Amino acid sequence: MGAPHTFGMTSLILAAMAAGVVSSWGAEAGPQMAAPPEPPSHTQSYSQPQTQQPSRHPMTTGDLALLKGVSDPQISPDGRSVAYVRTTFDYQGDKVTSVIVIADAVSGATRHAVQGTAPQWSPDGRSLAFRDDAESHNGIWIYDIATAHRRFLVPVPVTNAWLGSLAVKNFAWSPDGSAIAYVGTDSVVPPAPRPDGDAPAAADVEVFSRIMYKTRTGFTDNRRTHLYVVPVACGAATACTPRVLTPGSFDEHSLAWSPDGHQIAFVSDRSPDPDNAYTNDLWTVNAPTGQITRLTDTPSAEFSPAWSPDGKQIAFPAWRRPNNTKDSPAEDTHVWAMAATGGAAWPVAPSLDRRVGQVSWSPTGAMVYFTATDHGSISVYRANATGGPAQRLTTCECQVPQYSLDRAGRWMAYVQNDLTHPSEVWIAAADGRGPRQLTHEQDSLLAVVAPAESETFEFTSFDGIPVQAWLIKPSGMRPGQRYPLILSIHGGPHSTFGNTFSANNQMLAGHGYGVLAINPRGTNGYGQAFSDGSLLNWGGGDYHDLMAGLDTVIRRNAWIDPGRLGVTGGSYGGFMTNWIITQTPRFKAAVSLYSLSNLISFYGTSLYTDLIEAEFDGLPWDNYPLLWQWSPLAHVANARTPTLFIHGDADNDVPISQAEEMYVALRKQGVASTLALYPGEGHGFHRPAHNLDSLLRLEAWFDHYLGSGGGTSAAGGRE
Fold this sequence. Notes:
Layout: E1 5-6, E2 69-75, E3 81-90, E4 95-104, E5 110-115, E6 117-121, E7 127-132, E8 139-144, E9 149-155, E10 170-173, E11 179-185, E12 225-231, E13 243-244, E14 252-257, E15 263-268, E16 281-286, E17 292-294, E18 306-307, E19 313-318, E20 334-339, E21 346-347, E22 356-361, E23 367-374, E24 377-384, E25 391-392, E26 403-405, E27 411-418, E28 421-429, E29 436-437, H1 443-446, E30 454-460, E31 466-472, E32 481-489, H2 503-510, E33 514-519, H3 528-531, H4 541-556, E34 560-571, H5 572-583, E35 589-595, H6 599-605, H7 610-615, H8 624-629, E36 643-648, H9 656-668, E37 673-678, H10 688-706, E38 712-713
Parallel strand pairs: 32-33, 32-34, 34-35, 35-36, 36-37
Antiparallel strand pairs: 1-10, 2-3, 3-4, 4-5, 6-7, 7-8, 8-9, 10-11, 11-12, 12-13, 14-15, 15-16, 16-17, 18-19, 19-20, 20-21, 22-23, 23-24, 24-25, 26-27, 27-28, 28-29, 30-31, 31-33, 32-38
């Protein structure tokens, strides 16, 4: 059935946006269930839009409202239906709406839709549990498939504390369907600590005595996350109190029921100072008695346990390095398995030198399924549970970040997108045979928008290392004309560009710009050695990779105007944008989004101090010269490029002070620069209106300094 579900918004098409508002959506009466589909025999292809227009235009910001988020595909136990989340964006009303859609697995016809996120089928397939905050009830709901009736099950208090990017605050049905276990929060906010012992004199004073006193956009409420269990019979008609399974002063998350329903596996960091370490371990709690057992005791971190069907083994992704970070780790996760009673773990796919994501078991227990990133594609793989070579099941040049299996192990539902097709739900045999597109959520967009074509290529960098890149050409190019080029830089530094639909790149191409996206050293998906390539060296080899890629495309493409180059990126991509303008004057305009500029001050003000410790091998005061050497601010006197800074004023991942330091330094030197602050926004924008505004500002900035998008004659004149 796939991994249990988080309470937060599922992955959206626009990476800069997360959900904040939901609204209702109508539901039809109960469906007539079709027989499970037979294995399709045709080869993979995207279905054409159902409504074709005589002509289509390049993508613009006006088309954004047609783009839908499609995520969290959950195939029913009998394989006959697929539930998934459809997310729409209202830029005028400034809201996000998410509904759960139930589609027939044969025809794709929509049978139900209900407001909410994170669908999970009951074991008998008659109900869905899901997350929603409708009617002032923020928590878990139950949806009856036959009657289309929804009822509230239990409120789930949440904390604003951040436990790391791989911590899953999820919920799951018990194997017999009688109860739901979930990750919840203490309902009572603990008093603020006062280590000095003084009586408070003012009620509005914030007092902290922990390293991670910040959250993504504020200050921590200090509440802990625990495992709870509640009978499914509870609700409006039957009042009952959820039972806490893991009380105490620790945080627990990422739960999974054992097949017999007696044990629940979970993840917890119970080291003496979890704020100052990242040593997640696997634990189990006996659901009837509450007895807790530790399964692992490693110096690194384990994540997201998954039980084998017979309950004798647990598979999980994990690290092995003792020094890592809660945010963007250089170390790749790999799949491991161990006896459910604990003991030594073994690698499931030891020869696969790639970063893995979602992990689950085949219904027979012989195979472990997982996703992994390779050369810009995310694919579903499987390997023998005892260890062996990995078999790639989804073979398209695309990204498949989420999947689920039916109970019999015949079918796999998954989300797929590629460079010119936004996300849709697909279905295939569990071995990957006969993939076919199930949904048509993007038909309205593709009926009017002609996505710009992209090409991927590999070049040899300055030191002989091969590097992958993508070039998106301007829409409507004319022979003999030259066009501006935007170098786009990903975050991380261990994130990745790839074979996925990018609305931002499509809009830039539609506006008359070429876009170059490069995966420099530090990027994941090319093996551990490549991912480690930026350690101790932000702005070194990675910068030279970017410049080598830029030189390559200019040399190979006469249509690129080297006098009209722009650069942009967010987070680490913003760091690199700031770095680039201090190293070369070749770029005529830059847009730096939620960027870093001073690695020394970043360490003490960011939500996560461990990023600097992991990337630069230790505490900063032991090596301030190295951090200052790789800080753009140290070289700002060299900058001449007009730069727009875009930042959320509540960003604690990369505090606003990072943009302010760079902005003020540029202005002091007479370099044209502008600082755009977005109120209440963190690292990546939640509100559609803010996202749209930032895109329009980015386009306008490049238009002004690069002579606007579009071609010029070979002699340089506008046409």
